[in-house]
Amino acid sequence: MGLPTLQDIVKELEKPGLDPRGMAQPFEFGNVRSIEDLSPGMILPGIVNNITNFGAFVDIGIKDSGLVHVSQLADKFVSNPADVVKLNQQVTVRVLEVDLQRKRVSLTMKGI
After folding, report:
1. Long-range CB contacts for residues 108-112, cutoff 8 Å, separation at least 24
2. What's the confidence (pLDDT) of residue 11?
3. Which of 41, 28, 47, 61 is nearest to 92 (CA)?
4. Residue 72: CB partners within 8 Å, gap ≥ 6?
5. Which domain, by its residues, includes 64?
6. For residue 11, is it within any domain?
7. 64-87 burial, b for 16+ CB within 10 Å, e for fewer?
8. I need a surface site. Which of 41, 45, 85, 92 has the fewest CB within 10 A?
9. pLDDT attached to residue 24
10. Helix H or strand E segment including 61
């Protein structure tokens, strides 16, 4: 780094509170605290936290993430889940099935 770069940095640091980024959208999970609170048909907000070849895992505000199978990602055929969702993307999902014994939640993004 040269002197002009350092001068630019100091000049920008002298302006506290000025952020060139836009306002961040606050995110809130639904009123679900545990897997027992879930029931089929519930529509919830979530955040994609993992993408695999067979679908995407979505954090819906409980300990275990729910799975959106690749066949449930969109109303059309999807061969690669990464074409439809991105990591940390905010999505809306519907609960298809809740397996309390295995602690698994099946989700869909179809028709939402």
Report:
1. 108/68, 108/72, 109/68, 109/72, 109/73, 109/74, 109/84, 110/72, 110/73, 110/74, 110/75, 111/75, 112/43
2. 85
3. 47
4. 55, 96, 106, 107, 108, 109, 110
5. 29-108
6. no
7. ebbbbbbebbbeeebeebeebbee
8. 41
9. 75
10. none
The 10 Å CB-count burial string (b at 16+, else e) for 22-53 is eeeeeeeebebeebeebeeebebbbbbeebee
Q: In this structure, is residue 19 part of a structural domain?
A: no
Mean pLDDT of residues grouped by 10 in the chain (112 residues)? Answer: 88 77 81 93 96 97 95 95 95 96 96 89
Q: For residue 104, tell me if it sits in a domain.
A: yes
For residue 79, the domain's CATH number is 2.40.50.140
Q: Do the domain assignments include residue 43?
A: yes
What is the rounded distance in angstroms from the CA atom of residue 56 to the CA atom of residue 20? 32
